[in-house]
């Protein structure tokens, strides 16, 4: 009996039952290829004001520094592609923020998976991560065969595209490991050509400090005037490089009720957005990731788009 393979199958079956799109497993090791890339990206200041990207450099590259005795990284994908989208001609928010904040939704599923592993396999120590710790999610997901990192620096999967969240469990249990898949971007440059602010400075390299998502979510100061008129009506985040990706024609609507949008969101007109009050903001985005910008941040973004 191959215990490692049996345990891996057990974990993958349970991940599927919990609603995850897919699950891949890789050996918890030092990310050798990523180290020079991350260093160069930081040195060029492509993280803008996201100072936290400079912290914990070593931990970002070695999960064994995050979890004592770490042996395996279990990577998971959770679909968020919506069935219905916002009205054309209105201000737009990223599709991932339509429903409830993904951090809470995924954390709860990860906890259930962790409890399942402990009850079925025994004493397994580990930690759950949902893009809130120094973990290079996309690198681990690619290493475990869930997709490849595309020219827009998003993880892309042949059958389902890229509209999903990535999370992981890092555990001190040895498992059967998956192998990476090949890159299927080919000669396509759709994402590079379509980026409204030319943030994809070369294939596979995104200058975070030029990205609309950075300006509308991360940047706390005023948005630079040079970018006025270039935001394509995005008020929170931006999906352009994903919307134009040919692989996203395979995206299918999610089945997670918590990701369904607030009923008022999809019908909001330009005028509704421009006249949004703090009360409406609190009601529509009560549990949404849009709360990160706060009411004042969203108002700043909309004023910049007018």
TrEMBL record:
The active site is at 131 (proton donor). Belongs to the QueG family. Keywords: 4Fe-4S, Cobalamin, Cobalt, Cytoplasm, Iron, Iron-sulfur, Metal-binding, Oxidoreductase, Queuosine biosynthesis, tRNA processing. GO terms for molecular function: 4 iron, 4 sulfur cluster binding; cobalamin binding; epoxyqueuosine reductase activity; metal ion binding. It comes from Pseudozobellia thermophila. GO terms for cellular component: cytoplasm. It catalyses: epoxyqueuosine(34) in tRNA + AH2 = queuosine(34) in tRNA + A + H2O. Cob(II)alamin binds at residues 60, 131, 152, 155, 166, 213, 238-239. [4Fe-4S] cluster 1 binds at residues 185, 188, 191, 245. InterPro entries: 4Fe4S_Fe-S-bd, 4Fe4S_Fe_S_CS, QueG, QueG_DUF1730. Residues 173-205 form the 4Fe-4S ferredoxin-type domain. Gene3D superfamilies: 3.30.70.20. The keyword tRNA processing applies. The keyword Zinc does not apply. This is Epoxyqueuosine reductase. Its EC number is 1.17.99.6. [4Fe-4S] cluster 2 binds at residues 195, 211, 238, 241.
